Amino acid sequence: MKSLAILSHKGGVGKTILAVNLAIHLAAEGKNICLIDSDFHGPSILTFFTPKSEIHWINSFLTGESSLEECLQDLSNDLALSGKLLVAFADPTPESIQNVIRLDQNTSMKMLHYLMKMKSMLREEPYSIDYLILDCSPGTGFSTINVMVITEIILFMVKVTNADIIGTSHMIEGLHKQLKSRTKIIANQIPSDFLNDQTKKEHFQKLIENLLKKDLGDKTVDFMGWIPNDLDLYKTEFETAIKTLEGNPTRRMIHTLDKPDHIISKIIKELANNLFGDNN
To answer: ∠ CA 270-271-277 to the nearest 5 degrees?
Structure first.
């Protein structure tokens, strides 16, 4: 089983969209996937799916109150996927979010124990998971550090703004000891006309790599590519929000499920190959 943690310096950069689309793509390819919402400060994976039964939040497993089986929902058949997709949702209530904000080191260590237990269980029957994908909270809180400890691949997502680039650089420097020998980074919400200029792309990639590899010693940051702006996505997200406000909530668009031939779907498929190997 391979495991991936998706991190960011700030919220709103597209981590959750990427995590969901990667999971759907791999499950559609016949792989067994477990997608965990570990963004306990602002969980939103729930907005992409229609839960099929009463929800046991993954928070309750990490505190020993629920079993892993209770917290995982199998959505494979609902989405007509050839592989298995197990999803664990995080509790979005204000009370739960406040509990995470006040998390102390002892509770964090207990949660790490359960994360390690979860990873071990997912390798075995009845789960037999091929890929574990975790969407993390922004920043460097205890919950994010815990996820970094149990995952083999760490992918940072960055928006190309001064605040996010510099903040991500400081975050990577601050997490130096927890980083794996090779860490990944991908840039999101890039203007399409920029992506058509190969010279600009190569120049910017070198600037990013030079900034992020400072003070990392023998560790390396691999630049994984670009995801363009999608104006259709913004429109669809707005329309989905209106339906929710009207009392008719609907799941958000998932490119690799709803628009498999879209440029973003193609980029995510290529990213999956680059992250996990051509044979997945």
So the answer is: 85
pLDDT in tens, 38-57: 999 999 999 999 888 789 99
Which run of H or of E encompasses 140?
Answer: none
Which three-class secondary structure state does DSSP give residue 268?
helix
Residue 145 pLDDT > 80, yes or no?
yes
* Domain residue spans of the chain: 2-276
Q: Please name the residues in contact with 3: beta carbons below 8 A apart, sequence gap of 6 or more.
A: 119, 131, 132, 133, 134, 150, 151, 152, 153
CA-CA distance, 34 to 53, in Å (whole number)? 17
Alpha-carbon distance of 234 to 231, in angstroms, equals: 5
Report how far residue 22's alpha carbon sits from residue 235's, in angstroms, rounded to the nearest whole number.
22
CATH pick for 2-276 out of 3.40.50.300, 3.90.190.20, 3.40.50.170, 3.40.718.10: 3.40.50.300
Tokens encoding 1: 């089983």
**pLDDT tens string 221-254:** 788 888 888 888 888 888 888 988 888 878 899 9
From the number of C-beta atoms within 10 Å of its C-beta (0-12, 13-18, 19+), residue 242 rates as: exposed
Interhelix angle 162-174/198-212, nearest 10 degrees: 40
Position 34 scores a pLDDT of 99
Q: Nearest 5°: CA angle at 17, between 11 and 20?
A: 130
Structure tokens belonging to residue 232? 């259709």
Q: Say if strands 84-88 and 73-74 run parallel, antiparallel, or are unpaired.
A: antiparallel
